[in-house]
Amino acid sequence: DRRLAKRTETLTPSSTLAITAKAKQMKKEGIDVIGLGAGEPDYNTPDHIIEAAYASMKEGKTKYTPAGGLPELKDAIIRKMSGDHGLTYKPSEVLVGIGAKHVLYTLFQVILDPGDEVIIPIPYWVSYPEQVKLAGGVPVHVDGSVESGFKITAEQLKEAVSDKTKAFILNSPSNPSGMIYTEDELRDILEVCREADIWIISDEIYEKLIYGDAEHVSIATLSDDAKERTIVINGVSKSHSMTGWRIGYACGDGAVIKAMTDLASHSTSNPVTTSQYAAIEAYNGPWDAVETMRKDFGKRLDAVYPLLSDIPGFRVLKPQGAFYLLPDVSEAVRKTGFEDTDAFARALLEEAKVAVIPGSGFGAPGTIRLSYATELSQFKEAVRRIREFVEARW
Ligand code: PLP
């Protein structure tokens, strides 16, 4: 019997990576494509981080480290969690892994039994449901539509809870919507999770990319109970423009972290040693490059938001964080005669030469995601093309 395992049957490739790859291919063929699909900052990693990584290699720090991460990196993370949030963790409550994505994968493997449910708000980051399914779990979606500001309420969460619920995934600021939950909203959500006695997985990877007067509150800070039931996920990919270095981490319950570390010891071993030294410098060194990038993203958002909102049939909420815009384009899709948003996005790429991610991959099929981690003049040109494309068919 040479069949693939059953668990691969529902596995779909990441929609984000697929469109980005197609746009790159078109570019290679000499086609003038503007890619707004990217899920990463368009800056290089700050120089001092690259230098620290290089120096560590020259010093011979090129060997295995403990599977759960270097003690010095765990210390840097512990200091960051304490400085940013007033949260105290022991090294045994921190795991460093190969990007937040793989840390989440490992987490689901150690907390889910077959049939366990995980509540995931819509719109969601594409990998959550796939990773839950790969661990034998069942994703349960709760709809945060454009009308509710792409957020869910505590009441909705309560309705979704069953005796099989094991965890709730909170991603604030959100990919793809850029929305941030307020402290009051988080308190209500926490209360539901406390009553149901479930884990909270708080993916805070966009925490440093916040604009206007929005504030990021980590749900783990709200009470002792909140800290005990929350596994905070974070990393250096988005904050320090370090997506390729692959360093992410989890902070939380010691038994969960121990199980994750044991699993890592048999699956990945340590995250790349050089990248860990780079991450130590990212956290212990100067943070001004992070703030410069944030300010620049904020400026781009202010510049492009009105232009995008002005396209006929586009309904756009102004995001508060991350680097994505998620217009609801249902009306534009209808008026331009496309069957659905996927077809609309395909035509945008093929005819207008603009790559956007259709929201079907995020559970929000009426939307498209545009990343403004793109040079401003390019983004403006992309908006002009989209507008022309829509108006020509209206
Ligand atoms: N979580 C969210 C919401 C993301 O958007 C991403 C990256 O796109 C990740 C986690 C994973 O980040 P990384 O694996 O690069 O640390």
Automatic annotation (TrEMBL):
Please state which protein family the record places this protein in: Belongs to the class-I pyridoxal-phosphate-dependent aminotransferase family.
Report the record's Gene Ontology biological process terms: amino acid metabolic process
Instruction: Mention one GO molecular function.
Output: transaminase activity
The Aminotransferase class I/classII large domain is annotated at 32-386
- Protein's UniProt keywords contain Transferase: yes
Q: Which organism is it from?
A: Bhargavaea cecembensis DSE10
Query: Which cofactors are reported in the record for this sequence?
Result: pyridoxal 5'-phosphate
Which InterPro entries does the record associate with it?
A: Aminotransferase_I/II_large, AspAT/PAT-like, NHTrfase_class1_PyrdxlP-BS, PyrdxlP-dep_Trfase, PyrdxlP-dep_Trfase_major, PyrdxlP-dep_Trfase_small
Keyword list, A-Z: Aminotransferase, Pyridoxal phosphate, Transferase
Enzyme Commission code(s) on record:
2.6.1.-
**Is Transferase among this UniProt entry's keywords?**
yes
- Which sequence ranges are marked TM in the entry? none
Q: Which CDD domains match?
A: AAT_like
Protein known as: Aminotransferase
